[in-house]
Specification:
Helix content: 10-25%
Number of domains: 3
Radius of gyration: 23 Å
Structural class: alpha+beta
Number of helices: 7
Largest sheet: 8 strands, antiparallel
Oligomer: single chain
CATH superfamily of the largest domain: P-loop containing nucleotide triphosphate hydrolases
CATH architecture of the largest domain: 3-Layer(aba) Sandwich
Order of helices and strands: EHHHEEHEHEHEHEEEEEEEEEEEEEEE
Distance between the termini: 50 Å
């Protein structure tokens, strides 16, 4: 398949199994929702009645064109204000891949929603308005993508039609953002000039930008290599549920259900149970379709072991020669999502993989100015601010640094009184 051929949706009958998650980000009116709508429309991934509804709504609003942004701006408040407020998830597939899209808000007020939508993404798409160039929100979203260690970053310079498809405008944005992202931990960054409104370089190549010799966006998403991004070395299996069917047929069955967070598990592998430290071997790996010979991230499976051990929810099966830390003191970066500021001494609940315990904020080292990347002294973190903190937990958590494993290195903080999620955290160090 050549760049530009991508897919028009005609081969959707072909089965494909690889899943890619991507999140869109950008400032207000950069065209995130229009881009997603264009991807869905041009890849034939929307139903006829959905398109008819969008056409009628566009006519009623007086848009003067088929407003594909309405495919994702689903909330009434979003449609009335013309902005994205919540994270909108959409699914589509092509002959090469299945996709889960997280259309995240662009306004700084909704940074927490952006963090939520991007936390599991393989690719982050950041839109830049060709007329405005790189702005503070562009840098904010690139920094968050770096903080979340999203492996692949795609910068789509949108609305190229409004700058006469000028190559110089595109190159200026590429140069400025390349210089700035060189200060971040981003290993793979690509730039694509597009017009989401007209479909230029979204699914098909643009005839208006012959100077651009790269692939259109969908071709890039279909071919970006994501398998090496997952940690397939360190076995990590957080136990979510102990399965013991109360039936005569399965009276001897005992399995441990969960989602593989790292490594590849096989029957016969030796594993260690943390925090107890007991060792055993995997006897079988079950799925809803039957037993399998291996399990890897992010498969949901039930693991059976050879010995009768005391294993419960919150425990973790790991590689015996390469265990994570069982720690009560964490140094971490957190994005604060609570309406009330976070201050040292705050008592919260921390949820890490399948284990939940109480926690106390021991200290706030600094907050980050995401525009300049400066580390600023701070007595508190306000809504949507990001900072480095030290946390002490009520019981040990089995953690890796976030740089090593995005699943076992991440956590959320919960307000005990309201049960609201008030922070997302990434572990830097543990002891």
């Amino acid at each position: 398949m050549t760049p530009g051929a991508a897919t028009n949706g005609h081969a959707l009958r072909t089965r494909t199994s690889e899943l890619l998650r991507f999140a869109t980000a950008g400032s207000v009116d950069d065209g995130k929702s229009t881009l997603i709508g264009r991807l869905l429309h041009d890849s034939k991934a929307i139903l006829e009645d959905q398109l008819e509804h969008v056409i009628r709504t566009s006519e009623r609003r007086g848009d003067g064109y088929v407003n594909l942004a309405l495919l994702t701006d689903g909330l009434r408040a979003e449609r009335e204000q013309g902005i994205t407020i919540d994270v909108a998830y959409r699914y589509f597939q092509t002959p090469r891949r299945k996709f889960v899209i997280a259309d995240t808000p662009g306004h700084e007020q909704y940074t927490r929603n952006m963090v939520t939508g991007a936390s599991t993404a393989d690719v982050s798409i950041i839109l830049v308005d060709a007329r405005k160039g790189v702005i503070e929100q562009t840098r904010r979203h690139a920094y968050i993508a770096s903080l979340l260690r999203i492996p692949h970053l795609v910068v789509c310079v949108n609305k190229m039609d409004l700058v006469e498809y000028d190559e110089a405008v595109f190159e200026q944005i590429v140069e400025e953002l390349t210089d700035w992202t060189a200060r971040l931990d981003i290993s793979d960054i690509s730039f694509i000039p597009i017009s989401a409104l007209h479909g230029d370089n979204v699914v098909e190549r643009s005839l208006q930008m012959a100077w651009y010799d790269g692939p259109p966006l969908l071709y890039h998403l279909e071919h970006v290599v994501i398998a090496p991004d997952r940690n397939l070395t360190d076995i990590r299996f957080p136990v979510q549920w102990v399965i013991r069917p109360n039936s005569e047929e399965h009276h001897d069955y005992r399995g441990y259900a969960g989602q593989v967070a790292g490594g590849v598990l096989h029957p016969g592998d030796e594993v260690m149970v943390l925090p107890s430290g007991q060792r055993t071997r995997v006897s079988a790996i079950d799925t809803f379709k039957g037993s399998v010979d291996s399990a890897f991230p992010d498969m949901s499976v039930t693991v059976r072991v050879e010995d009768e051990l005391d294993i419960s929810r919150g425990d973790m099966l790991v590689e015996p020669d390469d265990p994570p830390a069982a720690a009560r003191e964490l140094e971490a970066m957190v994005c604060w999502m609570g309406s009330d500021p976070l201050r040292p001494g705050a008592r919260l609940v921390i949820k890490h993989t399948t284990r939940t315990t109480r926690a106390r904020l021991e200290d706030l080292d600094y907050r980050v100015d995401v525009n300049t990347l400066e580390h600023l002294p701070a007595d508190e973190l306000a809504l949507n601010e990001i900072g480095r903190v030290r946390i002490r937990t009520g019981s040990p958590l089995i953690v890796d640094p976030y740089a090593r494993n995005r699943t076992t290195g991440s956590f959320i903080l919960i307000d005990e009184a309201t049960n609201d999620t008030v922070a997302a955290g990434m572990v830097l160090a543990a002891r």
